[in-house]
Batch of 2 targets.
Target 1
Amino acid sequence: MRRILVDYSRSYQSEKRGGKAGKVLLEEGTLVFKGRAADVIAVDEALHRLAEIDLQQARLVELRFFGGLSIEEAASALNISPATVKRDWNVAKAWLAREMKSGKETNG
């Protein structure tokens, strides 16, 4: 699902489609996508960096953000406790938000 959304975002963001993009919020289990291609790509790039630091957190973000899994579903998929999912989810969201903010300041 992540690859499909990223590929679609890249094509949506291309100049022939206007290249306009909005902001994607990391809402639990929700991906509001239309018009937000650049941020989906930014999340994907940040996830690659997160995976180098903490693979479990990166996988959790994929399951929750791109897959729409609940805390309990993600815990089951990763074979960890819901408490660990909640803790890792909060850390990963904060890390991604900081990473994406610093990326926008560098590029913008």
Target 2
Amino acid sequence: MMNNSDMKKIFLISAAALFVGLLLGCASDEAQPVRYAAPVVEFTMPSDAVSATVGEKLTFSAKVVSGDKVSTSWYIDGVLTSSSQEFEYVFDDPGIYAVRFEARNGAGTVDHDYTVTVSDRLAIRLSVGDSTVVNRLELQYLQVAAIVEHGAGVSHEWSVDGTVLCDEAYFGTYQLAAPGSYVVHYRGANALGAFEHTFTVVANERPLEVSFSHSDEIIAILAGRTLTVTATVLFGGTGLQQKWYLDDVEMGTTGEFSHYFVSGGEYSLRYEASNSKGESVSRSWKVTATSTGRLFDDFEAETIGSWFTLGENQPGIERVANPDKTGINDSDWCLRDKVYGTGGTSGYFTLKAPKMLSEKGFDVSEYSGIRFMVHLGQNNYYPRIDFGGTKYASVTSPKFNNEWEVLEYRLPEGKTFDNTKNIVFRMLYTEAGTNISGGGESDPTNNRTVYIDNIEFFK
């Protein structure tokens, strides 16, 4: 009979044997290799040689029928392009491309090669799309382009109303000179074919726009004179209706306002116009009509009075036809002060107060101011009057607007002209009150010629 000690020994030996057996069994399992089933692929492409054109979408596919843990790859010219069994691809450039498929796992690799020949094609689109009618404004340039998406060596031809006008891809040199419809045709061609498209450009009339002969908001005029303001319709004149109002009283329905101002005062002048499209233009002015004091001379007579000193310059003061019968002066005749030569000068002429009193009975001592119309052209002159040794500048500076304007001169408070002293007009002064520098007839801003009219004294 075994005692307890023997039984323990037998148990320990059995357990050890079991443990060793388990260890040997595990070692046997780890040494067994993993076995994969090799890939089996069904190639579904209809041919190994594939033809396509630039921009055409191609589908590449290969079906893995069986195999464990199979990875797939598609290469185009050696570059991995897709890892799917099927993918789509578009070739942007013509040429011959090598396409390769591979399926692989631990048991092996299956591959297949294709040759893809991509041909060029002609593809053109226009910047106006497939429109048959496009709208523009009159006087705009057409500005349309042919965009070649595919194809080389394309020739271009643009025509308007049957006349070929451009052989470039961009056509932007044709101006839509007048409202109306223009038929535009494009043709682009190369060795692969041709693309053509015809569309109509409708040039719409531009919005109503009107210009005026008087740009200033305030128009100055002497009482006893006619004011003429002209409205010129630049665009949008279809179905135009025009109206002029003076102090809210309708005065005319044409493009010209003309009114004789009998007396001085301030007046409101308004222009309104609308066309058949419902567009409108309005403009308003304040007309300041200055009451005359004593209009000494407006030079309509055929001779100039002896109270003017003539020939002080050569040729000096002369009676001539009005060079600009618009705006505030529609007189037929005026004076011209012209100075020959090229040296510095003030271009002066003299009004003899004593002769005015003795021959015309006109006493200048009753007046403290004098105004006259002047037309400076483009000359940058600042006329002054010289009385009693003092040279007086005008109350407001000349406008240099190449129109007739009124310059006004005032003596100091409490002072009047003296009928024993002459009044000298110095027409060609600088702003500083000095003689102009040398110039000549061809110089537009210093041609040594000005025009004078309507010399008027006021209190």
